[in-house]
TrEMBL record:
Residues 366-488 form the FAD-binding FR-type domain. This is FAD-binding FR-type domain-containing protein. PROSITE patterns: FAD_FR (PS51384). InterPro entries: FAD-bd_FR_type, FNR_nucleotide-bd, Riboflavin_synthase-like_b-brl, Split_barrel_FMN-bd. It comes from Cladophialophora psammophila CBS 110553. SUPFAM superfamilies: Ferredoxin reductase-like, C-terminal NADP-linked domain, Riboflavin synthase domain-like.
């Protein structure tokens, strides 16, 4: 059994540990290629490689194939790599082989060229980091592909080739599987074409970035050491800030999700704020390489740039290459219900320039006031109405009809840092701020307007927690009221709602002319008690409302026929009930009778309605706040 003393943290790592208030960890990196790491790299079908070019800029690439192994140990702490690559535009290939592509072995002088690698198996959510020095290699170009000097229009065509690489490994570390989206990797022949080399990213490059669910990043500590790692999440988690000046480089921003708290990449960026990224399109084989200058944002600085983030990185692009069909592999998402998406993925966090988050937390701040739960009414098996009383209603002043309330439940639910939480994976990046539309009319409850109601469907851990709370025994933080989803009073308005999306209407009932209102509401039959409850509160809504009730009555079996009785009660109110989904004809027939259209549905239905009514301006409630 081998024993070794833990490596010390370098000054950059110490600095980021202080900034993020973590510490007390030993550096778990092994100063050699461990037997476990050696076994992993032989089985893993992808490897990201990072190195420095002759100008000291970090670049990163990713290679892959289902023809294994692409990497394997060839001696003690020596790794060999052999695989197909883009021989013309891959910046790591160019940095290492410098155009020498005749298959002759080249050897690095001195200690060798710095490199870092990440061997990764997406189907197993396994990865292992390695770092060391390139000591030898060879590149053989495939002459069957067009010569790199050939031009097709304004696109430069390149060639594929086979690399052989020998690397002396002096660091290895196994890593956690969070934020990896499972994909099956197969080999593909690169047929690279350089689409752009501008640091001001083209729209095609921006589209690639904003659809990616994985990228690889390489960094260096004072050109003495390197690191290569991955960043994964939901598609769209990487954002782009595009300057109006086309001569200026774009900025790529991403949130740093909760990880293992080692911060080796961020530690390098503290001491040497430059990084190289490779962002692959697994489906098309297109790939974006960028290198640039970085800034690590902590606490309030992060939340000012990218919403709901306490830690983020921005990279100002100084050089880039967008290559069509440059990857030597393709990746296919899995066929399971989640398509292999990581259960740890949080929701996409947007740039503050893209979406305003008025109630985002900054480091260490607390909610301005609290509210006590004073009444809870279960309406359907999944929908509950909660009444709260503000401790100090003067903090915010009166809220407007149609607004939402931002609740902060961190004090009750946040369990602090945890590396893994398989029982509740998304909680690791949860800020526990939730926004619910106020479903009561302002100043209609309480003596001083301090009471308000929200009608909520049980979705996720916060609403599940709320269901367990007892009246008079629960007090939560309130960050404020916001939103501008307000109907034009006394105008001819049409409202298209689905499920719980009816709630923005309820808080505005006092100000609307119901004779000029038309409402199309899609409701699942299991929630039949919800429209019955609302018509009991607001019987005047009956003549303005059309309910599209979906689902078979067999779904109401059980509970001694109570749910079927509620269906009959709903029918007895005289409200128009259609036993089908809403159709285009249901809406377009209103066009001559409506001035303003409003919609509150899931995004998929919103898209369908907008396609039904091209050219019609539809104001919609956005669930991304």
């Amino acid at each position: 059994m081998a024993f070794f003393q833990a490596a010390s943290w370098h000054e950059g790592e110490v600095a980021i540990h202080k900034r993020t208030r973590v510490g007390g960890y030993d550096n778990p990196t092994s100063p050699f290629l461990t037997p476990r790491a050696a076994s992993m790299i032989q089985r893993y079908p992808m490897m990201a490689i990072g190195t420095l070019d002759d100008d000291g800029r970090p670049w990163c690439t990713v290679w892959g194939s289902d023809h294994l192994p692409i990497a394997q140990p060839v001696a003690q702490s020596v790794m060999g790599v052999r695989t197909t690559v883009d021989a013309s535009f891959d910046p790591v290939v160019q940095a290492i082989y410098k155009g020498k592509d005749d298959g002759e072995v080249m050897r690095e002088e001195g200690n060798g060229r710095l490199m870092a690698g990440l061997s990764i198996h997406l189907e197993e959510r396994g990865r292992v980091k390695v770092a060391g020095q390139v000591i030898a290699g060879a590149l053989t170009v495939n002459d069957a592909v067009a010569d790199s000097s050939e031009l097709k229009g304004d696109l430069q065509s390149g060639r594929s080739g086979e690399v052989q690489l020998v690397v002396k490994i002096d660091q290895s570390l196994g890593n956690c599987p969070k934020y990896l989206n499972k994909k099956h990797i197969v080999a593909a022949d690169p047929k690279p074409r350089l689409l752009s080399s501008s640091p001001h990213l083209t729209q095609k490059a921006i589209d690639l970035v904003q659809s990616a669910d994985l990228f690889f990043v390489t960094s260096t500590h004072k050109h003495e050491d390197m690191d290569c790692n991955h960043r994964g999440g939901p598609p769209g988690f990487i954002r782009v800030q595009q300057p109006t000046n086309s001569d200026e480089g774009s900025t790529i921003v991403w949130p740093e999700y909760s990880g293992n708290n080692l911060y080796q990449t961020l530690g390098n960026l503290e001491s040497t704020p430059h990084a190289g990224l490779v962002i692959p399109d697994f489906e098309t084989g297109d790939v974006l390489y960028v290198t640039g200058d970085t800034e690590t944002l902590v606490g309030a600085a992060a939340s000012k740039v990218i919403t709901k983030s306490n830690l983020a990185v921005s990279l100002k692009v100084t050089a880039a290459r967008l290559v069509e069909n440059g990857l030597p592999f393709r990746g296919r998402l899995m066929d399971d219900a989640s398509q292999g998406r990581s259960p740890y993925n949080p929701r996409v966090r947007y740039l503050t320039s893209e979406k305003t988050d008025a109630f985002a937390k900054t480091a260490g701040d607390g909610p301005p006031t609290t509210a006590k739960l004073i009444k809870k009414t279960k309406i359907t098996p999944t929908v509950t109405r909660y009444r709260f009383a503000l401790a100090d209603p003067g903090v915010f002043g009166p809220w407007k009809p149609g607004q939402y309330v931002a609740m902060d439940l961190a004090a009750e639910m946040d369990m602090g840092y945890s590396h893994m939480r398989d029982d509740d994976p998304t909680s690791l990046n949860d800020d526990y701020i939730r926004t619910f539309t106020v479903s009561s009319i302002p100043n209609s409850l309480g003596l001083h307007g301090e009471e308000f109601e929200v009608t909520v469907r049980k979705v996720g851990n916060v609403t599940k927690w709320l269901e367990w709370q007892r009246e008079g025994m629960c007090e939560i933080g309130i960050r404020g009221f916001g939103g501008e989803f307000v109907f034009e009073p006394h105008s001819r308005n049409a409202f298209i709602a689905a499920g719980i999306g009816i709630t923005p209407l309820l808080g505005q009932m006092e100000s609307l002319d119901l004779d000029k209102l038309k409402v199309s509401w899609s409701v699942g039959i299991r929630d039949v008690a919800l429209p019955l409850d609302i018509l009991t509160q607001y019987p005047g809504l009956k003549d303005s409302l059309t309910i599209c009730l979906t689902g078979d009555e067999s779904l109401l079996d059980g509970e001694g026929g109570k749910e079927k009785a509620k269906l009959q009660e709903l029918l007895d109110t005289g409200v128009q009930v259609l036993r089908r989904r809403v159709t285009k004809e249901d809406l377009v027939v209103w066009e001559t009778e409506v001035d303003n259209w409003y919609l509150c549905t899931a995004p998929a239905m919103r898209k369908i309605v907008q396609e039904w009514m091209p050219g019609t301006t539809i104001v919609y409630e956005n669930f991304d706040y």
